[in-house]
Amino acid sequence: LAGVGIPVACFLHGYAGFIFGSVKANALWMTPLMPVIFIMSAIVSGIALCIFTYIVIMEIRVIFRKPSPWGQGTPSAMPQRETDIQIIRIMAKYLLFFMILAVTLELLDLAFHSYTAKKPWEILRTIIFDRFAFNIFGLQYGLGTALPFVLLLLPRLSVGRAFVASTLILIGVFMMRWNVVIGGQAFSLTFAGYMNYTLPIIPHDLDTFKEGFAGFLLLLLLPFALLWLFSRVLPLFPKRPPLPHS
Question: How confident is the model at residue 71 (pLDDT cuts 50, 70, 90)?
Fold first, then answer.
């Protein structure tokens, strides 16, 4: 599944970045770095989601595992944590490396827009440093990048700290997508003014379902449903042989 999923994900995010970067009418999207930025942020979110899902599944297995009927009350009979902290620490090293690449490319793109200072820069500066300043520098870079970066860099990474860091990184990548897509449509293409977007919470028709909160939840839960479906065919954990009766 990983062998199939990795190239498909690269093509998906690379193509999405190519579509955004080739829109000449939008000054925020038109940059040759957009496909690479999308791929790097997808790698970051993918590793963070692997850590998140691994910890959740392992902790759920401990919660629902029944203690051994032999030796009731002894420490060996109680459920033991199966989360391998060494696996998490190895994934965290890769995550830190790709976080540095992703943030460097995003800041390089911002510096490119600022340095060239073409005609659209005035309205882009208002979008970045005023109307979307909290989303970009507070949620995307502050809560979703800087804070988890420090949590992962601290020595003796724990399961709880890795879980919090991976959750914050997923929020940060989501905000990056939000700022690119919604921020790129927050100003008119004629630079005559600004536009506001209201997320539809309760769908009234198919369009408000696809573009609203209900469609977001559907897409959010779909990968976990597919993971459960695949686990029925390709079990995640081997079955343990029953213990012999003494």
Answer: very low
Instruction: Find out whether 40 and 101 touch, Cβ atoms under 8 Å.
Output: yes
Residue 116 clears pLDDT 80, i.e. is over it: no
Could you read off the pLDDT of 118-153 as tens digits, one per residue? 777 788 888 888 889 999 999 999 999 999 999 999
- For 192, the token pair is 């005559």
Confidence (pTM): 0.84
Number of other CB atoms surrounding residue 42 within 10 Å = 21
170 touches 52 (CB < 8 A): yes
Structure-block tokens of residue 110? 């911002």
Residue with tokens 């992703």: 102
Query: Using CA atoms in the order 231, 235, 237, 242, what is the torsion angle rounded to 10 degrees?
Result: 130
What residues contact 165, with CB distance under 8 A and at least 6 apart?
48, 92, 147, 148, 151, 152
> What is the torsion angle, in degrees rounded to the nearest 10, for the CA atoms of residue 156, residue 162, residue 164 and residue 165?
100
Report the DSSP beta bridge partners of residue 187: 194
Distances (CA, A) of 188 to 26, 105, 192, 213: 9, 26, 6, 24
Query: What are the phi and psi torsion angles at 66 (to 5°)?
Result: -85, 140
Summarize pLDDT for 227-239 with one digit per residue, the tens: 889 888 888 877 7
